[in-house]
Amino acid sequence: MFAKYKRGKKKKGDSDSSRVVKELLDPRCSDNGDAVQSWRVFRIMSEFVQGFELLREHGLAATFWGSARTNPNDKYYKDAEELASKLAKKGYSIISGGGPGIMEASNVGAYKVGGKSVGLNIQLPFEQKLNPYTTESLSFEFFFSRKVMLTFASEVYVYFPGGFGTLDEFFEIVTLIQTKKIEPIPVLLFGKDYWEPLIRFFEKDLLKKHQTISPEDLEIFHLVDSVDEAMKYINKEVKKIKSVKQL
């Protein structure tokens, strides 16, 4: 027989340490009472609705990830801008997290050639502000709803060198493809100096030493080191996907 437990009423001055309240429902940790906290679920839902409504208007699209700290004089910034420009000219909507660095570079590339430049920004107390090179944008308060939008936004995913956020998004996409939760799509890793040490770790430790991945998992992504290589791979893979869909 299951024991029954009753939650006692909170006394004045008691703090609610629940992570659901403090980090999910109310990331600002304001003390607005349980009823108000619960209504935040609808705010989360509204972010999903707005995000999907925006993205459904874009057909062919490419999402760019990379460090927010990359400056305009950096080689990778220039490469991201050039690649985004070439894709935009081919009719791709360019989607980024809307911030500075590589995100800005991709938006600049699309913006300069008159392409569709989308920024899915996140509200943070520092560092992340919407760059001015977007033709459409949404601002999210919750990381996870923004992450879903970025994850399901495009037919092409391009990863430039970045920090924890970039790696988090990379592993998210790779895991979804590996577990067949989404169809295989082109996943491009740009920059051999940055990505090769991580790939060696995959091959040496995950695959051979610990056997925690399969050989075919290493085929989910493709490494390039130039804009021309990237365009060649994207054109080939997207053409292949279109052919399969027409069957």
Describe this protein's structure.
The protein has 247 residues and is α/β, with parallel strands linked by helices. It has a single domain, classed as Rossmann fold. Helix content is 47%, strand content 13%. The protein has eight helices and seven strands, in the order ααβαβαββαβαβαβα. β1, α3 and β2 form a beta-alpha-beta unit. α2 packs parallel to α5 and α3 runs parallel beside α8. The radius of gyration is 21 Å and the shape is globular.
Q: What brief labels describe this structure?
A:
about 250 residues; seven-stranded parallel beta sheet; 8 helices; disordered N terminus; alpha/beta; Rossmann fold
Summarize the structure.
The protein is α/β, with parallel strands linked by helices and 247 residues long. Helices cover 47% and strands 13% of the residues.
Give a topology summary.
Blueprint: H1 19-25, H2 34-55, E1 61-65, H3 75-89, E2 93-96, H4 102-112, E3 117-122, E4 136-140, H5 143-151, E5 156-159, H6 164-178, E6 187-190, H7 192-209, E7 222-224, H8 227-246
Parallel strand pairs: 1-2, 1-5, 2-3, 3-4, 5-6, 6-7
CATH class: Alpha Beta
Q: What form results from the Cα inertia axes?
A: globular
Distance between the termini: 57 Å
Sheet bearing the most strands, described? Answer: 7 strands, parallel
Total beta strand runs = 7
CATH-defined architecture: 3-Layer(aba) Sandwich
User: What share of residues are in beta strands?
Assistant: 5-15%
Assign the structural class, choosing from mainly alpha, mainly beta, alpha/beta, alpha+beta, or little secondary structure.
Answer: alpha/beta
Q: Counting H and I runs of at least 4 residues, what is the number of helices?
A: 8
Assembly form of the protein: single chain
**Gyration radius, in Å:** 21 Å
Instruction: Provide the low-confidence segments as ranges.
Output: 1-8, 10-14
SSE pattern: HHEHEHEEHEHEHEH
CATH topology: the name is: Rossmann fold
Q: State the helicity in percent bands.
A: 40-55%
- Estimate the mean pLDDT confidence: 85
Strand adjacency order, main sheet: 4-3-2-1-5-6-7
Tally of individual domains: 1
